[in-house]
Amino acid sequence: MLRIIDLKPGNEAAIQQTAQLLFDSFKDHWPDAWPTVEEARQEVTESFADDRVSRVAIDETGTVLGWIGGISQYNGHTWELHPLAVSPAVRGQGVARALVHDLEAIIKARGGTTLWLGTDDEDHQTSLAGIDLYPSVWEHITAIKNLRGHPFEFYQKLGFVIVGVMPDANGLGKPDIFMAKRIT
Question: Which CATH architecture has domain 118-184?
Answer without folding.
Answer: 3-Layer(aba) Sandwich (3.40)
